[in-house]
Amino acid sequence: MHTDDATHAHHDDAENPDYFEAPGWEERYAGAHAVWSGRPNPQLVAEAGSLPPGTALDIGCGEGGDVIWLAQQGWEVTGADFAAGGLARAAQHAEQAGVADRTQWWQVDAREFDAGGRCYDLVTSHFLHLPDGGMVEAVGRFAQAVAPGGHLLVVGHSPEAHFTELSEAKRRAMFLAADLVPGLPTGFEVLVAQQRPRTVVRDGVSIDIDDSTLLARRAPE
Ligand SMILES: C[S@@+](CC[C@H](N)C(=O)[O-])C[C@H]1O[C@@H](n2cnc3c(N)ncnc32)[C@H](O)[C@@H]1O
């Protein structure tokens, strides 16, 4: 996905009360057309592009654009999402891209995410927004899935001026990178906590947005 699509989708869904629940997302993924572009997110390419391939987990993976890109770089990737329809599309796209053998899928609600002993060299999440600032606490749980010496990359929208058309609930779900830092457990070093500007086209109009970007590394054992 790229944020052209993400911002467009946010705009369309501004008053959708199901935005934070799986049925609303299942409905979107049941439509005739792809919801996202299939292209990898720019901050993933910027940060993971220089990491040696290993195992990765993408939480809120949607139709799998980032999962497929990582698999194409040589990673063994698990895509996680609470929407079965998104995961089904992602698996189909991975098959079409010839990387099905390097991908797995996990249906899970990020609000109840429990690593359960699994660990990955990279845990990534792009444009997952949980209600009532829930991403701060989620960062702590996602971090439990990071292997020693591994990385956590979380990217989302900041509640900027051009998002004022959104409901208050959706704006409260957005975050600045710095907001997430207190969610990190001890033993993590913050490598990046930045608002990264990017120009996207929404409804034919170019707008400047910020990608709230947190990259942290867990200390090696
Ligand atoms: C804006 S989309 C981003 C998709 C993907 N990361 C990308 O960049 O193309 C958000 C995704 O998060 C998923 N999602 C939203 N809330 C979730 C939750 N509580 N648990 C798991 N997945 C969730 C949605 O189903 C959707 O696929």
Provide structural commentary:
This protein has 221 residues and is of the alpha/beta class. 30% of the residues lie in helices and 29% in strands. The chain has 8 helices and 7 strands. It has helices at residues 3-12, 22-29, 42-48, 65-72, 84-97, 135-143, 168-173, 177-180, and strands spanning 55-59, 76-81, 103-107, 120-126, 146-157, 188-202, 205-218. It has a 7-stranded mixed beta sheet, sandwiched between helices. Helix 2 packs across helix 5 (84-97). The longest helix is centred in the middle third of the chain and has 14 residues, at 84-97. The radius of gyration is 16 Å and the shape is globular. Residues 1, 6, 25, 36, 41, 60-62, 65-66, 81-83, 86, 109-111, 126-128, 130 line the site of S-adenosylmethionine (SAM).
Radius of gyration: 16 Å
Helix amount: 25-40%
Numbering strands along the chain, what is their spatial order in the largest sheet?
A: 3-2-1-4-5-7-6
Largest sheet: 7 strands, mixed
Number of helices: 8
Proportion of residues in extended strands: 25-35%
Uncertain spans, ≥5 residues at pLDDT below 50? Answer: 1-14
Order of helices and strands: HHHEHEHEEHEHHEE
Task: State the separation between the terminal residues, measured CA to CA.
Answer: 34 Å
**Count of individual beta strands:** 7
